[in-house]
Design a protein that fits this description.
single chain, 82 residues, 0% strand
């Protein structure tokens, strides 16, 4: 959302970064909103960090990688022991 009374600063970014941000934008969303959505100030306490981590959605899982991982379970490493 942009208002004429809002202050702004011009920044220079590479075309690759611009393309990345453009791909992250939702319809009608500003680049500022995209940046705010994807960046967070550092946590000041361990409790604050834990709250942020618990609020994150679960990671996306690649089914092919999961199958490979499960197929390797229980196998011994072929590396020599020290």
């Amino acid at each position: 959302m942009h208002y004429s009374c809002m202050s702004y600063t011009t920044i220079t970014i590479s075309t690759d970064v611009h393309a990345m941000f453009k791909g992250l934008k939702h319809p009608g969303e500003s680049f500022s909103a995209v940046i705010l959505r994807h960046t967070h100030p550092p946590a000041e306490t361990c409790g604050e960090l834990l709250e942020r981590l618990e609020a994150l959605p679960p990671p996306e899982i690649n089914p092919d990688q999961l199958r490979k991982f499960r197929a390797q379970r229980g196998r011994r490493s072929r590396r020599p022991r020290r």
